[in-house]
Amino acid sequence: MKARRNKKQVPSFRKLLKTSKVKLENKLKNKQFKQQSTIKKYRKEQRKLRQAVKDAVSKKPVPLEDPKEKQPGKRIEREEEEEEEALPLDMMDEDDLQLMKDLGQRASFLTRDISSSEPVHVKKRKHESVIDKYEKIPRTLQTAPEKELIHLLPIKDKSGIIPQTREKPVIDSNQDEEDQEEMEPEEGNEIIEKPIKELTLEEHLIERKKKLQERKMHIAALASAILSDPESNIKKLKELRSMLMEQDPDVAVTVRKLVIVSLMELFKDITPSYKIRPLTEAEKSTKIRKETQKLREFEEGLVSQYKFYLENLEQMIKDWKQRKLKKSNVVSLKAYKGLAEVAVKSLCELLVALPHFNFHNNIVVLIVPLMNDMSKLVSEMCCEAVKKLFKQDKLGQASLGVIKVISGYVKGRNYEVRPEMLKTFLCLRIKEIEVKKDTEDINKPKKFMTFKEKRKTLSRMQRKWKKAEEKLERELREAEASESTEKKLKLHTETLNIVFVTYFRILKKAQRSPLLPAVLEGLAKFAHLINVEFFDDLLVVLHSLIESGDLSYQESLHCVQTAFHILSGQGDVLNIDPMKFYTHLYKTLFKLHAGATNEGVETVLQCLDVMLTKRRKQVSQQRALAFIKRLCTLALHVLPNSSIGILATNRILMHTFPKTDLLLDNESQGSGVFLPELDEPEYCNAQNTALWELHALRRHYHPIVRRLAVHLIAGAPSEGSEALKPELSRRSAAELFEAYSMAAMTFNPPVESSNSKRKDKVLQGDSFLNEELNQLIKRHCSQVATPLPLDFTKCLETSLR
């Protein structure tokens, strides 16, 4: 017979090639795992069998009921019945006895249900019910309480996942109660033995002062160590910053304020003059020198600590805004405001001091909403910081970032913001912008000659000189390291476009907004930079605003100023008659006085310079005469600095229009009478009046006003005894107004007190009266008044008659 062939065929070589290596490894692992699991199962079964045999041998069968509880009579009866029922061994066959012994030696005899007639290894049927299965389970008595298990995290090894458990320790409740009872009197004894010492107010203050001094010394030590060697001690910044979380309620607020200010000054001192960028993966992987590695670690530490510091300041401001009390309750709600103000002040300092460093835009985003804060102190601090930044920013990069954020914020709030936000635009350092040019007009950057060009056109010696000249020019460019004018103009142009977009939106949508004065003032300053395309529409809007009558005197003056700035620059080419703006200014002059409107004189002086002096060819003689006369009248009822500015303006107008000296003569020229109440300067007949106000100003209490009045009466000569000193003649009217300002509530120069003549004999009492009058008074006073009944009817009758 042939050997039986194995059904499993050996896989061919080609099939093995197709089978992947991973698949073969997985098959091998599965096979090993199955073998290990079968071995484990076998060992487990053997262990259970051994344990069952041990339990059967060691333990005696325990009855289900406690025999102690039963009565002795019943126990005897039960024993007798058992004896009767039990079969003696004599009556059993030898075969049966041998079978019982064999079964007793088998372990399965102990674990199997004896009542069942089925064989031991019979297989379970599929249709077997759950109740039958449960009934076949052997009953066991619970001799000890079950222990609770705590399931731990499983362990994973090559064989698989191994579950881990631990017994839960059982705590005796009675023992715990006894322990607690024992502890209570001990605690009571401790409280009685060591009572807490209550400090008086004076002792508490001394203790607080001591703690505060310790914290100050610690802050000073850390700060001095960082300043002495920033690169080595950069890690101490973290230690100092951790003091922002001071938990001692006695000194928490003061220490946090000191740490905020100390860190701010440290960052201002140790921050480099360039922006630190994150390293690329290629730069991190390259090998570098120790010095470079040390510098990199310093820069990374500085940037990270600076970032965390700014986040801490932001969180302090948010806590103050939200009135949110922390869980630690170390700082009270009232102290939040003080902390927030110090945080805002530090942010403002960093905004101005570090415009080139990292996270500057984040500081701007924090500061701009605070410019519109309800707290006046916080709002003023932020506005002043932004103004300072605009004034010192020469290139315009930082200013552009701030302007973008402010414009977006104003638009987002629907133009309901403080006017101070827009007044910061006036501090922008923009004097010229990029004008659209033809491609031919654009100057191409200078290029150096190539070697071939030099060889063709230059000799050997000339090439040598040219090479040295180009090298020197390159070195000079590198040494300057200044930004090009083109880049500066581009930034200024973009900034001004955003400013004008904001202004025009407010003029269009919010004409009755409190932002209008700031908008008109800004337009007046930057009007010469506005594109010609907007001139016509802008002038129409300005005139309609003036005619509406809703504007104050200051706003209307800004409208006039804006209109003439437009017309004096690129607007010369436009055919626009500004007579209505002259009329409005002439009418507005008498609204100024020595009270609150005195500050408006500065705007008037600027308007007059643009309207009359710079446009002298378009101004008629009648108009100039009318303005000179009204200005002299205005000089009588304003403060001395305003009178000085007005008289200086009249001096310039008399030089610009020489024929106006006829106002110094008493004789009138032409027909008509001067009409001072008429608001039309062309038709008020100013040539028929005289400047009599100068004679009143000649006796003014301020010496400079007196000097200017005498100078104008003499015809404003440039030479001679009546000529002005250079310190007065070379200054403009606006400069004189500022120089002699009375903002400090003092006269400049001091005004001499008038020496009144003292009388040797001071008249008192009756000496002021006539002798006859004195006698009459004495006679009436000496008469004794007789009491008479009052009769009102007589008086009534006389009044009716």
Automatic annotation (TrEMBL):
Q: Which GO terms describe its biological process?
A: DNA replication initiation; fat cell differentiation
For bias type Basic and acidic residues, the affected ranges are 52-78
List the PANTHER family: NUCLEOLAR COMPLEX PROTEIN 3, NUCLEOLAR COMPLEX PROTEIN 3 HOMOLOG
Source organism of the structure: Bos taurus (Bovine)
Q: Which domain of life is it from?
A: Eukaryota
Query: What are the residue boundaries of the Nucleolar complex-associated protein 3 N-terminal domain, all occurrences included?
Result: 215-309
SUPFAM superfamilies, per database record: ARM repeat
> Record's Gene Ontology CC terms?
mitochondrion; nuclear speck; nucleolus
Where in the cell is the protein located?
Answer: Nucleus, Nucleolus
Q: Give the protein's recorded name.
A: Nucleolar complex protein 3 homolog
Hey, which family's this protein in? Belongs to the CBF/MAK21 family.
